[in-house]
Amino acid sequence: QRQLVESGGGWVQPGESLRLSCTASGFTLTYYAIGWFRQAPGKEREGGSCVGVSGDTTGYADSVQGRFTISRDNAKNTIYLQMNSLKPEDTAVYYCAARRSVVVVTSAARYEYWGQGTQVTVSS
């Protein structure tokens, strides 16, 4: 059974940083493009930070470009999302997702497998 499990969420103050992790079980992420997305209450899932199978190709939504960095460690079957300069509007449940493809896309609808999410809250 393919599973993605996110960790690392929590509460931080504006301007601080947080790193999320996503570990896969039941399958290897080597052949999957991976994305991190977020969803705030009453809003659409958005904010894609995506990485290709080798880690060399990335794509970011405008809302996180320049502040978030996605990376992967295929040996550990784990994906990371480094989030810097966090803002209150970054508050959301963050999900990682996998797509069996070499093409990096930032649209959540294109991803097949999803984790359960981890809450990130940014407030003073």
Q: How many helices does DSSP assign?
A: 0
Radius of gyration: 13 Å
Helix content: under 10%
DSSP summary, beta strand count: 11
Main pleated-sheet profile:
7 strands, mixed
The helix-strand sequence is EEEEEEEEEEE
Distance between the first and last residues' Cα? 40 Å
Structure at a glance:
With 124 residues, the chain is an all-beta fold. The chain has strands at 3-7, 10-12, 18-25, 33-39, 46-51, 58-60, 68-73, 78-83, 92-99, 113-114, 118-122.
Search tags:
globular, mainly beta, 124 residues, 4-stranded antiparallel sheet, 7-stranded mixed sheet
Q: Which helices and strands occur, and which strands form pairs?
A:
Blueprint: E1 3-7, E2 10-12, E3 18-25, E4 33-39, E5 46-51, E6 58-60, E7 68-73, E8 78-83, E9 92-99, E10 113-114, E11 118-122
Parallel strand pairs: 2-11
Antiparallel strand pairs: 1-3, 3-8, 4-5, 4-9, 5-6, 7-8, 9-10, 9-11
